Amino acid sequence: MTTIRLTAAQALVRWLSVQQAEDGSRFIEGVWAIFGHGNVAGIGEALHAHRDAIPTWRGQNEQTMAHAAIAYAKANHRRKAMAVTSSIGPGATNMVTAAALAHVNRLPVLFIPGDVFANRAPDPVLQQIEDFDDATVSANDCFRPVVRYFDRISRPEHILTALPRALRVMTDPANCGPVCLAFCQDTQAEAYDYPANFFEPRVWHIRRPEPDQRELEAAVAAIKAAKTPLIVAGGGTLYSGAEQTLLTFAKTHNIPLVETQAGKGAVDWEEPLHFGSPGVTGTGCGNALAAKADLVIGVGTRFQDFTTGSWTVFSHPGRKLLSINIHGYDAHKRAAQPLVADAKVALEKISAALGKHRFPDPDFAARDKWFQTTDALFAAPKGNELPTDAQVIGAVDRNAGKQSLIMCAAGTMPGALHVLWRAAQGGYHMEYGYSCMGYEIAGAMGIKMAQPDRDVICMVGDGSYMMANSELATAVMMAIPFTVVLTDNRGYGCINRLQKATGGAPFNNMLDDSYHVNAANIDFAAHARSMGANAVRVASIAELEAEMQKAKSATIPTVIVIDTDPMPGTGAGGHWWDVAVPEVSDRTEVNEARKGYETGLRAQWPIN
């Protein structure tokens, strides 16, 4: 047997460089790295040696460079991914939040944190977490609950089995998610005679599981028995590549559809059967259909509480669920009729079995009325008052084209965009499974790396921007252009509204309601310029629109800051959401809010 003598780190990087996606490109497109004493000597040397075979990028923070990797995978519909490496200690634990984000959203990313010495000779090494009762534990064990596969590389030959297992998970459509390979730092530097054939290129195919015949027949029967079905399209629609199949299915059988946060953009907003979004951030016309639906057909959705209005929006008596999902865990939720299969294959087979079966027209007039309502919300202010978030979205929408992609993650904007944004097919990217503040800037960079021809627009509030903005400097350095619209409402406006809606006093959310000696006065445009970005503060919606046009020709990121009114919500749509209100309080407002909360609880469907 022919062998090649390499260090374990050299073998890992060499192997990753020849793993291929279905289109023949690298599956692991590159490696984000911040070096420290746990990875600089081993992995760092290996990445340098193979820098022509697989690129290495330097981030500013371990969590946000992982966010960029996750956004890249999401924008590629899980067909490609990236790796992220850090030192031991804080470098590693900084990535745990990002791992949780990837896990919730079922997205592939390869985490390679440095680990303690396998030989334990220098214990305790700098930054080592010592478990007083278990010598096998390190800080990297924090990853175990938030990754799909965990392994600790403590011998150089471990990578012969660990690496194929890692990519098996990352390319498995049902169990897809993040992987952590905790790499002991002395092991990284140890040499081993690896089989030469281990480094032969391999293509990783994404399988399309066929449905069980009995489940398929039951699904068809459920649809034929329905009178007012509604399709709820989730992220699995995109990951399956089933966008056109879904549209054909809906039009063939005249079934209206709504899209979740993860599924938005599967179908162009101008399609007449597209009724927007369901649930807490639902459109008025979409939620009206949801209330009347006697069969809810979930396609690649996990039925998160925002989608279901905490299980109050699908309120038709005797309502049934049909859940088409690649994973049995999701397909069986809420006693649904499961159809465990690839979304594209499942829809094609159901449609063939339904033949010419069609349903009556939905209420198209309600859809038209909804867009008339949102047209009014989008209109610019007529006076000197601060614009609302809806008016900012309207301005951005008017200046977006079919090649534009809007993205966000947390705060006011995700809900407002879900209910109001008019997304072209493929033009929407929302991290709302984990709703992680600080994802936006890094995520926009990752999306642009995945889809360089897209006009990427990042919507972010001042609170989320303050959480994590340093990858703006990375995007400048790497000449990755995108547009950031930063709405400054001087605090956590979204949570302030929720606090007040549940009877609480405004407290610790808006900057003026938080403990302070000096009033906050942050110049966000100057801050962005200090990192090299184009940046401007605008004083009106008209100025915002003019700057949006200028940004389209930029070669580095552009940040446009605009002050907004923190008080108004979206102004239309929406639904009840289960946020527990205290049973006992000295505040009259809380007691009144509790009465409304108990009304909502009575509308919930029983937990199955």
UniProtKB/TrEMBL annotation:
Gene3D superfamilies: 3.40.50.970, TPP-binding domain. Residues 411-562 form the Thiamine pyrophosphate enzyme TPP-binding domain. It comes from the Bacteria. Keywords: Hydrolase, Thiamine pyrophosphate, Transferase. Residues 41-128 form the Thiamine pyrophosphate enzyme N-terminal TPP-binding domain. Its EC number is 3.7.1.22. Pfam families: TPP_enzyme_C (PF02775), TPP_enzyme_M (PF00205), TPP_enzyme_N (PF02776). GO terms for molecular function: 3D-(3,5/4)-trihydroxycyclohexane-1,2-dione hydrolase activity. Belongs to the TPP enzyme family. The keyword Transcription does not apply. InterPro entries: DHS-like_NAD/FAD-binding_dom, Myo_inos_IolD, THDP-binding, Thiamin_PyroP_enz_cen_dom, Thiamin_PyroP_enz_TPP-bd_dom, TPP-bd_CS, TPP_enz, TPP_enzyme_TPP-bd. This is 3D-(3,5/4)-trihydroxycyclohexane-1,2-dione acylhydrolase (Decyclizing). The keyword Nucleus does not apply. It comes from Tabrizicola soli. PROSITE patterns: TPP_ENZYMES (PS00187). Residues 216-349 form the Thiamine pyrophosphate enzyme central domain.
